[in-house]
Design brief:
Blueprint (H helix, E strand, L loop, with lengths): L1 H32 L3 E5 L5 E2 L15 E5 L39 H7 L8 E6 L5 H13 L5 E5 L4 H11 L6 E5 L3 H11 L3 E5 L16 H18 L2 E7 L11 H5 L2 E6 L6 E9 L7 E7 L2 E4 L3 H5 L10 E8 L2 E13 L7 E4 L3 H15 L6 E7 L11 H13 L7 E3 L2 E2 L5 E2 L4 H10 L4 E5 L13 E5 L2 H6 L2
Parallel strand pairs: 4-8, 4-9, 5-6, 5-7, 7-8, 13-17, 15-16, 17-20, 20-21
Antiparallel strand pairs: 1-2, 1-3, 9-10, 10-11, 11-12, 13-14, 14-16, 18-19
């Protein structure tokens, strides 16, 4: 009896151990079934299992946010049903790079910024302030591209079909090659793109798109990153050009992780004041062209119109016979542009002088005023100074330095500068006037617009051909430049 009892006890212990193990597996299974969370960096998209004050990837502070992640791994490689055109290695010499594969947008200004047109299979991100005209520009581009016989699919997650139709009626007539879709679910969008097989797809906007596998809200870091990844695979796999509209933050950058700009091929920013008539499309990243080109547009009742001669447009309304006003020639990529620099210097009524800069770097203006005091001997410490680049442009090119100095001294001495004179050159801390790039193109633009005098760095004279229509004055330092006044 004792042996039987002992065996029964051992059997009971073994059974209880199995039950406990089974219960532990059930608890572990329930824990694994729960939605896990991770921490993402808002700037670069770095993922971490725990929170950290500083991102180890981009070294930014207080950028980690906690968001749920999906349990199953995201799809990698090519999408289902999408085959890569370059599935096997090819020689570099066998790759065709003919520009005939590009699609013209119908806007010469936009084609210039894109590097000559839309590249097949490219992913373009368009950012800008709310109400600046991003959707209007893309809808006008859809109209011109669809009139060429190409299929365009416009997917909106913010507006209804009636709202888009009202804007389209203001722009003009559209063909049946343009199709509209109001959807925010990426799975439905993916199916619609595969079924329609368009040449160009517009996503307005990426912050409204979502995937059900990810538990976070639309517009979060994980949703934006996953949505962009799906669209990138569709663009590369199917050879479809995709335009993504992105909202910007108060700092002026596209909302979401910084990795979004690294994933796309081209990043365009739509700039300008909503209260002003002009708009500027600027490229900050372009794998198929230059990043220094800009396109200038004017907002009208029927949409955006191209400004073919921005120099004449920027100089319209320039005052005659006013001191502190000079014309400076800048280079935006391969395009020379004339802008008016205005300065106002007056006695300060308070104990501390006031400085204001609009359209240029505030610290650069303070630096140039210090150079004027030290190297020229004009004391501006007790004067208020206001510098403005007319037209609302934001200029950081060093060629603007000499124009700012001439405008400040002109206003301080109340001396008018000839309205047919242009000025450009970089100013150093020693008061020297340094060379700038592409002086010949700047002089040619001045001749085209009827200017008869050009003040430029003396070292640039050897790179400029003599022209009877314009007088070239080379200066080595600020004293020589101010002697012209």
């Amino acid at each position: 009896m004792q042996k039987v009892h002992t065996a029964f006890v051992k059997f009971g212990d073994k059974q209880r151990q199995q039950d406990n193990n089974q219960a532990g597996l059930e608890v572990t299974g329930r824990a694994m079934a729960k939605k896990t969370t991770a921490f993402f960096c808002r700037e670069c998209g770095y993922e971490s299992a725990k929170w950290s004050g500083q991102c180890p990837a981009c070294k930014e502070w207080n950028t980690f946010i906690e968001e749920p992640v999906k349990a199953k791994a995201s799809r990698t490689g090519t999408l289902s049903g999408v085959k890569n055109a370059l599935s096997k290695p090819v020689a570099l010499k066998d790759i065709d790079t003919d520009d005939s594969d590009r699609i013209t947008t119908g806007f010469d200004e936009l084609d210039r910024v894109l590097g000559g047109g839309i590249v097949e299979g490219s992913l373009v991100l368009v950012g800008g302030d709310p109400g600046i005209g991003k959707s209007t520009l893309l809808l006008q581009m859809c109209r011109k591209v669809s009139n060429q016989g190409r299929k365009v699919l416009y997917i909106s997650g913010e507006e209804s079909l009636k709202q888009i139709k009202l804007r389209a009626e203001r722009i003009g007539d559209f063909t049946d090659n343009l199709q509209l879709l109001c959807e925010t679910d990426l799975e439905n969008i993916e199916a619609a793109i595969k079924e329609a097989s368009p040449d160009i797809v517009i996503i307005d906007s990426i912050q409204t798109m979502y995937r059900e596998e990810i538990g976070s809200a639309p517009g979060s870091v994980s949703q934006v990153r996953e949505s962009t990844s799906v669209l990138m695979q569709l663009a590369k796999g199917l050879g479809i050009s995709v335009f993504i509209v992105g909202h910007v933050t108060k700092e002026g950058v596209v909302a979401g992780p910084r990795v979004l700009e690294h994933m796309v091929d081209t990043v365009l920013y739509f700039e300008g004041d909503r209260n002003a008539a002009y708009r500027i499309v600027r490229s900050v990243k372009n794998r198929f062209g230059s990043t220094n080109e800009i396109g200038v547009f004017e907002m009208r009742e029927n949409g955006l119109n191209e400004v073919m001669n921005p120099s004449e447009y920027m100089l319209s309304g320039k005052p005659e016979g006013a001191s502190g006003s000079v014309v400076v020639c800048l280079m935006e990529g391969t395009r020379p542009m004339m802008v008016e620099v205005q300065a106002l210097v007056c006695d300060s009524n308070f104990g501390m002088a006031r400085r204001t800069a609009a359209g240029t770097d505030y610290n650069r203006v303070n630096l140039l005023m210090a150079v004027i005091e030290k190297r020229v001997g004009i004391h501006l410490g007790g004067c208020d100074a206001y510098v403005n680049v007319a037209g609302g442009l934001k200029v950081n090119e060093p060629a603007l330095d000499l124009g700012i100095v001439m405008a400040l001294v002109s206003s301080f001495r109340n001396i008018e500068i000839n309205s047919k004179t242009i000025i450009f050159g970089e100013v150093g801390l020693a008061g020297e006037v340094r060379a700038v790039s592409q002086p010949q193109q700047r002089v040619n633009e001045a001749v085209k617009l009827g200017f008869d005098t050009c003040i430029l760095p003396d070292v640039c004279l050897k790179n400029v051909k003599v022209n009877d229509k314009i007088k070239l004055i080379g200066v080595k330092n600020l004293n020589e430049a101010l002697s012209v006044l």
